[in-house]
C-alpha cells in the first residue's frame, strides 16, 4: 500500500481571513496481484497427450502422457493411450503392463478392452486375446471401435481376410472411421490388393494424420 498525505484546509477564523490546515492520509489501493496459473492436472495432460497422438505427434504425446502418469499413476486415459503408443513402438511388455492396469481401472470400457485384445495378441503371439475383442463387442460404446480392434488383432495374426471383414463391419457402423479405413488398407495390401489398400490408407491419413499410429508395428510384405 502507498500512503499519500494530502492537505485539506478548513476555515477557522473567517473574520480574520485565516485558515487552519489539517493533514489527511489517503490510502491508495494496492495494485492487483498477478494471477497464479492453475496447476495442470493429470486429466488435462492426458487429454492433451491424446490430442497430440491423434495428430501423429507421437514424441510429444508420449511426453504429455508420461507427465500425466507422474502426477497420477492410475490416470486411466493416460495409461490406455500410452499403452497404444508403446504397442506401436514394439515395446509390448510395457504396453501390456499399462493396458492391464487401465483395464483393471475400467473393466467395462469398450475402447480399453479392445486395446487389451490387440496388445495381448501382439505380446503373446496367440489368439487368446481375441476373447477380449469379442467381449468389447458386447460392451456399451461404438461398435465401430470394437470391430476395428478385432481387425487389428486379426491383422497381427496374419489373418488378412478376417481382418478385412472386421474392418468392413466397422465401416458399416461408421463410414468415416479413419483407423478402420487405414487398417483395411493394410489388410488389403497384405492380401495382395495393393491398389485398393493404398487408396484406403491415403484417404485415412488425409483426414486423420494419426490414423496409422496403432499399426506402426505391423509388417506388410
From TrEMBL:
TPR repeats mapped onto the chain: 42-75, 144-177
PROSITE patterns: TPR
Keyword Nucleus: no
UniProt cross-references to Pfam families, sorted A to Z: TPR_8
InterPro entries, A to Z: TPR-like_helical_dom_sf, TPR_rpt, Ycf3
Keywords associated with the record: Repeat, TPR repeat
Transmembrane segments annotated in the record for this chain: none
Superkingdom to which the source organism belongs: Bacteria
Stored PANTHER family: TETRATRICOPEPTIDE REPEAT PROTEIN 6, UDP-N-ACETYLGLUCOSAMINE--PEPTIDE N-ACETYLGLUCOSAMINYLTRANSFERASE SPINDLY-RELATED
Protein name: Uncharacterized protein
Species of provenance: Piscinibacter gummiphilus
Amino acid at each position: 500500500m502507498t500512503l499519500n498525505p494530502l492537505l485539506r484546509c478548513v476555515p477557522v477564523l473567517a473574520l480574520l481571513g485565516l485558515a487552519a490546515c489539517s493533514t489527511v492520509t489517503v490510502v491508495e489501493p494496492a495494485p492487483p496481484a498477478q494471477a497464479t496459473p492453475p496447476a495442470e492436472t493429470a486429466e488435462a495432460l492426458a487429454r492433451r497427450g491424446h490430442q497430440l497422438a491423434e495428430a501423429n505427434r507421437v514424441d510429444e504425446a508420449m511426453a504429455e502422457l508420461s507427465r500425466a502418469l507422474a502426477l497420477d499413476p492410475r490416470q486411466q486415459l493416460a495409461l490406455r493411450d500410452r499403452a497404444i503408443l508403446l504397442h506401436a513402438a514394439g515395446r509390448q511388455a510395457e504396453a501390456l503392463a499399462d493396458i492391464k492396469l487401465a483395464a483393471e481401472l475400467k473393466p467395462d470400457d469398450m475402447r480399453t478392452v479392445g486395446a487389451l485384445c490387440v496388445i495381448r495378441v501382439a505380446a503373446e503371439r496367440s489368439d487368446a486375446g481375441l476373447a477380449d475383442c469379442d467381449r468389447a463387442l458386447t460392451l456399451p460404446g461404438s461398435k465401430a471401435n470394437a470391430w476395428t480392434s478385432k481387425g487389428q488383432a486379426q491383422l497381427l495374426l496374419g489373418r488378412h481376410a478376417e481382418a478385412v471383414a472386421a474392418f468392413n463391419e466397422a465401416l458399416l457402423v461408421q463410414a468415416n472411421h479413419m483407423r478402420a479405413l487405414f487398417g483395411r488398407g493394410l489388410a488389403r495390401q497384405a492380401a495382395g490388393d495393393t491398389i485398393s489398400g493404398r487408396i484406403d490408407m491415403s484417404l485415412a491419413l488425409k483426414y486423420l494424420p494419426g490414423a496409422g499410429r496403432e499399426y506402426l508395428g505391423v509388417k506388410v510384405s
